[in-house]
Amino acid sequence: VQLQASGGGSVLVGGSRRLSCAASGRISVAWFRQAPGKEREFVAGISWRDGSTHYSDSVRGRFTISRDNAKNTVDLQMSSLNPDDTAVYYCAIRYGGTLSPRKDQYQSWGQGTQVTVSS
């Protein structure tokens, strides 16, 4: 499965940005991010099985992940952005109904989209 992530760009501190990942089917989808010199980390995910969502502590309350079944996308709405959110954001899929924060549990990855937060 080939994934396509989009929506990255530059945004001011406190601003918002919406990322989209073209993905559909019986798959769980997660967003990860990787900042320069850091490991790729789990950001948010949505389970195919029950639609439950999960967030990392660093983004909970600021980011929202959702499915748009009409567009066949999984979107990540990001708000109250700060410079620590600057990273390349990747969407990834995991077959089956559960999510995992481990990147090695995901079978396919998108190419990544850069988000840069500046003051």
Could you characterize the architecture of this molecule?
- This protein has 119 residues and is an all-beta fold.
- It has strands at residues 4-6, 9-12, 17-22, 27-34, 41-46, 53-55, 63-68, 73-78, 87-95, 108-109, 113-118.
- Strands 2, 4, 5, 6, 9, 10 and 11 form a seven-stranded mixed beta sheet that branches. The chain has a four-stranded antiparallel beta sheet with strand order 1-3-8-7, with no helix packed on it.
- Strand 5 and strand 6 (53-55) form a beta hairpin.
- The model has no long low-confidence stretch (mean pLDDT 94).
Largest sheet: 7 strands, mixed
Count of DSSP E strands? Answer: 11
Structural class, by secondary structure, is mainly beta
Low-confidence stretches: none
The backbone outline, from C-alpha atoms, is globular
Q: For the CA atoms, what is the radius of gyration?
A: 13 Å
Number of helical elements: 0
Give a brief description.
This protein is mostly beta strands.
Keywords:
119 residues, mainly beta, four-stranded antiparallel beta sheet
What is this structure's SSE topology?
Blueprint: E1 4-6, E2 9-12, E3 17-22, E4 27-34, E5 41-46, E6 53-55, E7 63-68, E8 73-78, E9 87-95, E10 108-109, E11 113-118
Parallel strand pairs: 2-11
Antiparallel strand pairs: 1-3, 3-8, 4-5, 4-9, 5-6, 7-8, 9-10, 9-11
